[in-house]
Specification:
The protein is built from ten helices and 14 strands. The chain is α+β, with helices and mostly antiparallel strands and about 350 residues long. It has a seven-stranded mixed β-sheet with strand order 8-9-14-10-13-12-11, with helices on both faces. It has a five-stranded mixed β-sheet with strand order 4-1-3-2-5. GO terms for molecular function: acylphosphatase activity; carboxyl- or carbamoyltransferase activity; double-stranded RNA binding; zinc ion binding.
Length: about 350
């Protein structure tokens, strides 16, 4: 090893990284924070309207490893399209921090925001755990799942730029948000029953007739009785009926002016889907993915469009109220509202 190489790696350097792509709303800043701490680097990371900005100081070999591991170990939902690196003189950072995001007054806003993500297994476990403070809370989410595109108002992706801005986190949620080792570290929609949005059931005149768990119970009763339920979900409304009730399904078809086109059917789990449908390896992967798309499946006599119930509200209803498979469709002719009302976030 040459003396020049040894000197290069024994000195402190500063590395500035600009990363563009799908790097907001995917746990990228918490990932960068933990990686910097592991490699004993100082500096900062923040969101900008163009992506993620990073400045780190440390030994050259650690900085090179930092850059390499960003590409190799990035969060699973992220996609890096551009990574620009610039070596700079050190300024003497004493610790690594997540800084406030840059101002939105920028002529080009090119940061990519993910679509809403299906509820992850960890959050589902929280919802169904009687000892968990989020037990039966339908708006549970974390860095790995939950609303993204549907709640954002502006870039960069921070809580104050979403419809969650009006919900001030309680001390427990704030502690989760601030703790680097918590999976809700910098999860922008973080909420709980104490500080987050609440479930309500409205009648056709907009009057609240039930709330919280009672709202869920009455909603299940409405579906079982053959009526149509309008459920405010991620980014819009779903019209829901009992798929085993022919009269209810026909009523939904008439209202949507959709006499023959298939309607999506929701199942509580993949095992029940496989009882009715032929599911290929690719189709199973799609149904189990964070995107949770509607998938057209093969059946013995007909084709079936299966939709995993990705909002926790739907999953909670199915598990607690033993919902049958239910047919759903968007408001009107199948087109969802491009933006939800600003009065409350919708999962």
């Amino acid at each position: 090893m040459s003396p020049d190489y040894f000197d290069l790696n024994s000195q402190q350097h500063r590395l500035q990284l600009t990363i563009q792509g799908t790097v907001q709303g995917v746990g990228f800043r918490p990932f960068i924070y933990r990686l910097a701490m592991e490699l004993n680097l100082t500096g900062w990371v923040n969101n900008s309207v163009q992506g993620v900005l990073i400045e780190v100081e440390g030994f050259r070999q650690n900085l090179e490893q930092f850059q390499y591991r960003i590409l190799k170990e990035k969060p699973p939902q992220s996609e890096i399209e551009i990574l620009d690196a610039v070596w700079l003189p050190i300024v003497g950072y004493s610790q690594f921090e997540i800084h406030l995001s840059e101002s939105t007054n920028h002529p080009q806003k090119i940061a990519i925001i993910l679509p809403d993500l299906s509820t992850c297994s960890d959050c589902l476990q929280d919802i169904f755990d009687p000892e968990n403070r989020r037990y039966q809370y339908p708006f549970t989410n974390c860095t790995n799942c939950g609303p993204r595109y549907s709640i954002i108002r502006d870039l960069p992706y921070d809580r104050n730029h979403t419809t969650m801005a009006t919900f001030i986190m309680c001390s427990n949620c704030q502690n989760e948000y601030n703790h680097p080792l918590n999976r809700r570290f910098h999860a922008q929609p973080n909420a709980c029953p104490v500080c987050g949005p609440q479930l309500e059931l409205w009648d056709k005149n907009g009057k609240v007739i039930a709330s919280l768990n009672q709202a869920l119970k009455q909603a299940a009763d409405i579906i079982r009785s053959g009526q149509i339920l309008a459920l405010k979900g991620l980014g819009g409304f779903h019209l829901i009926v009992d798929a085993r009730n022919e009269t209810a399904v026909e009523n939904l078809r008439q209202r949507k002016r959709r006499p023959a086109k298939p309607l999506a059917v929701m199942y509580p789990n993949l095992e029940q889907v496989k009882q009715d449908c032929l599911v290929s390896e690719l189709e199973e992967k799609l149904l189990s993915s964070p995107a949770a798309p509607i998938v057209l499946l093969r059946r013995i006599f007909n084709q079936l469009k299966s939709d995993p119930p990705h909002p926790p509200l739907l999953r909670g209803g199915e598990k607690k109220q033993t919902f049958p498979p239910i047919t759903k469709g968007g408001v009107g002719g199948g087109n969802f509202p491009k933006k939800k009302p600003n009065i409350s976030p919708s999962w």
